[in-house]
Fold these 2 entries.
Entry 1:
Amino acid sequence: MTSVDSASGPVSEPVYQPVSQPAAEPAPEAAAQGVPAQPGPREQHAKAAPKRVPLDVRASDALLGWMDRLTGPTRGTYQAAMLRVGFGLVFLITLLREVLNRRELWGDQSPWSPDMARRLLSGVNGSSLLLLRDDRWWFELMYVLAIVFTTLFVLGWHTRATAVLFYVMVESFKERSILMTDGGDVVLGLMAFYLMFTASGRVWSLDARRARRTGRGASPGPGQETGVLVALVAVVAVGLLLPWWSALIGAAIVFVGMWRLPFELEQLRIAVVSAMHHCAMVVIAAQVCIVYGAAGLFKVQGGRWQDGTAMHYALRLEYFSPWPSLSHIAEGGAVGGTLIAYLTVFTQVGFAFLVFAKRAKYVAIAILLGMHLGIAVLLGLPMFSASMALGDAVFLPTAFLLWVRARVPWPRPRTLRG
Amino acid sequence: MPEQDSPDTGVDSGAGATPTGAGGTADEDGTAAAPTRPAAVRSYDGYEADPADPAGRSPRVRLAAAAVAIMLVSGVVLHLLFVTMHVAPPNRASQKYQKTTNEWIYPLFEQSWKLFAPDPLNLNIHVTARVRVKAPDGTVTESAWMDLTGDDIDHIKHNPYPSKADQNLLRRAWDFYTGSHNSDGSRANDQGELAEQYLRRIVIKRLQADGRADGVVAVQVRSVSTPIAPPGQSQEEPMVRDLGWLEAQPDDFR
């Protein structure tokens, strides 16, 4: 709270006041706590005075220290790895589940023809690898590649490059048939984009295993030939999907990365990668809060969430009731239904605040996870629910993720540890 | 935010992965219980000191890193501002900067979180259709109404993981149609024609799946919307909305 003390005077003050000079105002700590200025014992002034570093120096020190933390050792690598595996599996399961409907949803037999998709997209400048050609073989090739790239991403094989390929595929399928998507696909697309910038392959990955076995880290240079090749594939994919300059940037990074960097440049590279990871994790966390904040704000506008009938209507939509008799039970009657409606709105609106509360955040996460389990079963939306639940799980502590991981039988942690 | 006191903080080297290489680092032991690592294993990728150790950074590396970090943070702040403006209920600020916001958001960050909001839909809409078929001898007959939504719901019922083809395809096509047409059936925006084409093709596609699409010359779509009765009240009568006949095009038969 030291920045509060405007009493410490203009910033042009001399840097260090002589100890002997009686201080004109109380110590910063006292000012911040609202203690009235009292002429205290002389020793107290003598003690407080040397601490009085001008605001600009303290501010720049704080800023630089903050930047050091941002560019320092990566935090939240287990959370990033969880998102990698989770969202990768969501997309993989979707592709496998729809394998028989693939031509109707995204392919040559779709009533939403490539021409129509291109006409709709021309308004918003989107693009998709699936729209580059109309042939069936191209579509089938992209489908197989999407499965392959996603599998490699889940396993964490040359993760940075496969993360880019994963995003390109997720975006391609989304833009090909934008009218086939629901909220889950939107979350998946956003998170796939943000995950490109995280260090999601540091743990629970083939990369981590290889690094342990060979002792070779991620520094560019000899020994990274496979990674360079995968990265080149990713650059080509980016060039086909996104504006040409983004591929140019990617190509430049790959080109520079083929050689061993001088020590200081390598230090800088590591710092930038770390800062990018931290920024991306903040964006992911903020995006989850934005989702709930917006969903909550819109619900506050609706009368049915306040009169307690929202559950009644939501659970009687035929498109979202695979188990009608179960849905009728889950409406919860007058009291239960109202309670669930209120709890939903309060948790969603309050989520952004609750995550900063050390203990209360677990209550919020538990409520939301329960809500999404209910949505998965009752509304028949397992992949939407899984995507949202992964967003909630970002806020879980590493210790808990490790505890869960220890109980997942495969792959054996021992094997992964090499 | 991930936990501040995550056990990996001390273990992770911060060595990163550009597209050249990949995420792994040499010093990751994957356990929280063993924060101390055997020093002998460290190779530093051939460097004499650990390039990932922030303490070893010279002032100019530290400053350069800070400069990049400040740029990244500014980008994060801007992005989150734009996303917030994009998803928030319409307000003065978001309307004032709508153009800039849209340029940033579309198409990559497009999102809407009106999940069952402001109110859950209180209608069960069934999209039904009938077709005009021209027989080889030239006689034209009209089929009976087919409940396309009913088919979707049959597929969804008792299915723990329904397909997008049943859950989203027709449902969102109808939303697309109502969003691009006025209540009198005239086109409200330039997506109207696309929406009509889409509905027509969905009907023909369904008939094709049954092998009944031969000779179809026109399609008519009708929506039958049944209001969900408020708790404890009796069912209301459905509302019917007929669209005009849509002529089938050769390209519709795929």
Entry 2:
Amino acid sequence: MGIPTLPAIAVGMVSGIATGAFNGLLVTRLRLPPFIVTLGTWNIFFALVIFFTGSQSIRSSDIEINAPLLHFWGERINLGGFVFTYGAFLMIGIFVFLWFLLNKTAWGRHVYAIGDDKDAAELSGIRTDRMLVSIYAVAGLVVAIGAWVSIGRVGSVSPTSFYEGNLDSITAVVIGGTSLFGGRGTIIGSLFGALIVGVFSSGLSIAGLDVLWQRFALGCLIIIAVGIDQWIRKVSN
Amino acid sequence: MEPVLVAKNLSKKYGRVVALESANLELYPGEVLGVIGDNGAGKSTLIKVLCGAVIPDSGEILLDGKPVTFTSPIEARTLGIETVYQNLALSPALSITDNMFLGREIRQKGFMGKFLKFLDKKAMADEARKRLSELGLLTIQNINQLVETLSGGQRQGVAVARATSFGTKVVIMDEPTAALGVKESRRVLELISEVRARGIPIILISHNMPHVFEVADRIHVHRLGTRLCVIDPKKYEMSDAVAFMTGAKEPPQS
């Protein structure tokens, strides 16, 4: 659209925050179940993306010439024989930042309190609605950063790529021990969950397994992981 | 002696149902005021009005002689009216310290706290430990234990410690012994006496007559949306109180 790269990235980040906050507002103002809100906006935002892009992809070579900054996180660096993308360091940085946020700040404690028992949190003096909107906004920002990183990883940009990325992230955090009922979960668990899912699926790809059976295996992994988690919880109680 | 908290002519209707009809209540410094009433007598509406969860249609609330209005429990709390809810309003997955300071955390001093918003976990843990030991609750070993690992009575203790820790003027306790066993109830009753000993007046709502008669200095009997009478537990029997509550007996003229 002719916007210089840096402002364009900023617009991307702000749209991430805005769409996240929009989800949060729907959840808190209209008192709709979060699952339904995000399912609805998932489709709405996807349709908008198709509309704005005219369903066209942008080739990697065009990006390289016009906006190389978009590929920044995909740049590689060789450290002692191991090749890392800058994106890997960014990921670690985000994990560290979110760990501090969740464990060392009041905001983080309030995230847990709301997930645990929203009514109790409200009675404890937490403004739960404002908190929820901010949590959704942070999630939106993380997604926007993820999108930027993925441009570097993939090279080209397609409006349909990572369409089901949210399902993969749910898989990762659930395997990482985050409770779908709220209030429990750690950032380190999510990191390992993401690593397990990542290593598992690339391992299966490298082993040459059909994509069909990769999906099948991932489905089994989710059920087994959650099953073990429930079992451990039952035994430890 | 001037009352700490006064409710005057509070009324609240839900459609055509009258929950409160010119209800009055006075709470004096250092006392435990028991509030009893049959189901549907409007006592929980009265309490919800006092703790800010329900906004009355009309009437007035005075705190330390000054009229106050609040539209949420948070506002009531800011003014010094703390409530220990029946469900305790604790977050089980958080530690004792986190729970006690939920919504009013202490930040670190200087740059770390002001700009990075780091919490001063040590200050909070020390303060929490101090509050719990003041209430004789330091059988709890580790202040950073998760609340879900505590027994019902200990949780009640944490909720009470939280309610009495922040410049509180009045504590409202809603059915504090309802979910507890005999031994734990006993501990909570002792806790109520300890809070009173520290000079904080308590409004105690309970269905449990023996408990109310044991710790209350005065008993407010609520019936048909208003105060029927206030009785002295030393001068009346429990059976009298039940008779007043249900209308089987005429209340004493005061």
